[in-house]
């Protein structure tokens, strides 16, 4: 099944069968036209889904790790075989450039491959107490039904990064995708069904009523895990709700990533890395470089070349391969971009490229560089989440580190240095969970993804990702 229309039709047709008559429209942000009308889940739907997931938990948890691994591997293979069509589904509802969507599709599929391998390596341990009185056996058991909540910016990868480790661990899942981009999640659910996931193990609940759905799931007695990717503000609300039933919570929340260019850095390499770190998905990423902190010795060359690179990006509908920058997700986001640019300019910044809403349909905003933004400008305290890059110039490495850490969040950061020892030293001083040192991308299925401070709790990806969906059981015995 590689036709885009067929994927769309199958995804909607195979959504949970107890859906009601309520529906909502999914819009193409490049045209404001309707991509598809999809069923809208209700709180009753959420309860039913959790009930069925709870009934399916026992058999799925009891299945062999190898059998789960083979299903995940088949899911990877189907996604790879249908990658072009899936990428075009992502473009239709998210708007990102086709090259970005293709990259996301392969990245998303790779979580199924990675966790097909991790499923058979979920080891326990055998030890002896210091007193010699007990042998201590530990094992990892599936935590239970997992409620998964994903954002719109990476509608495939954010879903697979949660679904794959949960299934590998033996959990059943109920996924609430973002209302802006539910179709990709439905496509993935259909791929899982075709790969052999038993009925009742995976549920996807598109809905125009996100908070009511998630609240219902958190109140369900079978739900023992919440995994959320989204804003820090919403994450705090969900953590309070999870606390009522002491539900285990993994939180991948907001970012405000610094991009630090140190004296002696290779400016061309830094610009190339900046384009990756800033413009992946048009800047709509929690790991996107948000604040560019550049040492004065390389500032002029960096700003000139970075502005030229940003200004050269072709903007337009994502399905056209000539375009490198699609729209932001909706009109509200477009207004936010202009407001943030106006803030930066009011603080004393200078627009070097971009900086104005284009005339025409769709929620487009051009790649924008604002130079000479003061280190105390309000815009530097906000997660921009779009193609806007404020640049601040500093006179010392210590000042760069101070500005980089002057935020309550700490997800990702980037450091470009000509000297590896200096780069490592600065990277270690950053209050973030992940650092790209002389590279503009940090994400990988084999790497633990997550932040510190108000950027969240727990890790996704790597071995750590599957452990988030398990409980450790200890048995004490003697022989």
From TrEMBL:
The keyword Oxidoreductase applies. It is an enzyme of class 1 (oxidoreductase). The keyword Oxidoreductase applies. Belongs to the aldehyde dehydrogenase family. This is Succinate-semialdehyde dehydrogenase/glutarate-semialdehyde dehydrogenase. Residues 22-475 form the Aldehyde dehydrogenase domain. GO terms for molecular function: glutarate-semialdehyde dehydrogenase (NADP+) activity; succinate-semialdehyde dehydrogenase (NAD+) activity; succinate-semialdehyde dehydrogenase (NADP+) activity. Keywords: Oxidoreductase. It comes from the Bacteria. The active site is at residue 252. It comes from Curtobacterium pusillum. InterPro entries: Ald_DH/histidinol_DH, Ald_DH_C, Ald_DH_CS_GLU, Ald_DH_N, Aldehyde_DH_dom, Aldehyde_DH_Superfamily. Its EC number is 1.2.1.16, 1.2.1.20, 1.2.1.79. GO terms for biological process: gamma-aminobutyric acid catabolic process.
